[in-house]
Amino acid sequence: MKKIITAVLAATLAFTALTTAAFAQRRRADINTELQKSDEIHILYNDKMVQYEDVKPVINEDRVMIPFRAALESMGAKVGYNEAQRLVTAQKGNIIIRFTLLDSVIHINNNGAESDMVMDVPMIIREDRTLVPIRFMSNALGMQVGWDGVTRTVVVMDYDAVADEISRIAPNLAKYAALPKRQMNERIFTAKMTSDSGSHDLSATAYKSGDTLYVKTDTINMADVAFGEALESGSEWCSIDMKRIFRALNFDDRQSAVLMSAMSGENTDSITDAILNSMTREGDAVFSEATDLALLLDLVEQMDKYVTVTQTENGYNLTINISKEQLAGAIGDAMGVKTDEATRAALAETIGISVTAAITYDGERQTSEATLTMPGKTITYTETATESEFSKPENPYDITEVFVNML
Question: Are the CB atoms for 203 and 362 separated by under 8 Å?
């Protein structure tokens, strides 16, 4: 289930660029409604607000404190309490935690592995309720925590629960994410933009070898851009050190390794685990603003409506089709625009964007085709990806610095 988050995140980022954040807002609207009810501290578990009937969360020594039973149960944990020993037990999945009220140590059993976590602030009593620091409780149960200071919201992320939710709301994307894929280091692609002013073509061949991307193109002389030198078009290889690029983007080594694997098309359980690990650094939620995850889930749910995945004998076919009428309707719904058929048709003509794409994998080769049509302009893209023998060029022009400086 964890691999679903990874694949859907990547797909949604590309989809967002085409549709804008206005594509869907249902979950965000629900969260914003709850945030506006009071200026108290809010607790957000994935995309749902945690409700309290009596004692509210408070801040003590720069830590948000919560009534332990209500919070833990709302996050899917089963909570037990031994009153004689004042011992609390909570279980979520394969993780069991135990702690004594007003003690500072949490005992953790993670699928048989025992460890202790020492809280840096003490539990407190408010109105006969014991309040615990939510960050430590969430981390002990394998969840991550962020803080949205603008809305005074603690953001708790449970990645297993998010994967389950994506599987439920986006069965086509979940099916695609679960399909086996293999590493492909060679990519040959072309792109063409046609407009009223004429057409512009791009073609290139790219190889990934280790942490380096090698590119040769007859269309753009990248060495000219890097050095101001005139080279024979398409005759020279250029190299890009992707580790340096990722460092410039503030990715750590684990994240860089995952991204490099993704560039090759490899999608194995080990890579998926690495991605999840890179996203779930201890104590920090990958989504720190209250509506970030809600936006992702809204987009994923909408995107899935336009995706079809068919598994073949040796691979799969994936298609995406979004007409200008469908896109206009989705944006109108997201903006809360109630319109008749004629108004919607006019909106579709004004927006005028449609997307078609197809990816076919036959077990050896992956081919991709996409067309983006907009008013006065059409962009077409094709790519063939394979696993291929590659001899590193002896003296490629290193243009890494050009991209680093751009970043």
Answer: no
Q: Which two tokens stand for residue 161?
A: 């629960």
> pLDDT confidence of 79, banded at 50, 70, 90?
very high
293 domain residue, yes or no: no
Can you list the positions of beta strands (E) in 119-185? 124-126, 129-133, 144-148, 153-157
Amino acid at 332: G
- Specify whether the CB–CB gap between 28 and 295 falls below 8 A: yes
**What's the chain's length in residues?**
407
The pLDDT, as a whole number, for residue 407 is 64
On whether the CB atoms of residues 384 and 187 are closer than 8 A, the answer is yes
Find the domain containing 83 and state its range: 40-151
% of the chain exceeding 90 in pLDDT: 16
| Residue 233 belongs to a domain | yes
Answer whether 33's CB lies under 8 Å from 346's CB. Answer: no
At a CB cut-off of 8 Å and minimum separation 6, what does 361 contact? 181, 315, 316, 317
Structure pTM?
0.71
**Three-state secondary structure call for residue 34:** helix
Task: Say how far residue 346 (Cα) sits from the centre of its chain.
Answer: 34
Are 219 and 203 contacting, i.e. CB atoms less than 8 angstroms apart? yes
The neighbour count for residue 147, using CB atoms within 10 Å, is: 16
Spatial distance between the Cα atoms of 232 and 321, rounded to a whole number of angstroms? 40
Pairing of strands 153-157, 42-45: parallel
pLDDT digits (tens, 9 = 90+) for 189-238: 888 888 877 888 888 889 988 889 998 887 655 545 555 554 455 567 88
CB atoms under 10 Å from CB of 31, counted, come to 23
198 and 147 share one domain: no
Whether residue 288 has pLDDT greater than 80: no
Q: Would you say the C-alpha torsion 213, 216, 217, 222 has a positive or negative sign?
A: positive
Q: How many domains does the chain have?
A: 2
Helix (H, G, I), strand (E, B) or coil at 338: coil
Q: Beta strand 238-241 with 307-311: parallel, antiparallel or unpaired?
A: unpaired
**Is 202 in the same domain as 93?**
no
Task: Over range 340-350, report the average pLDDT.
Answer: 78
Instruction: Give the separation between CA 300 and CA 303, rounded to whole angstroms.
Output: 5
Interatomic CA distance for residues 390 and 324, integer angstroms = 42
d(CA 187, CA 231): 23
Looking at the domain assignment, is residue 275 inside a domain? no
212, 142: one domain: no
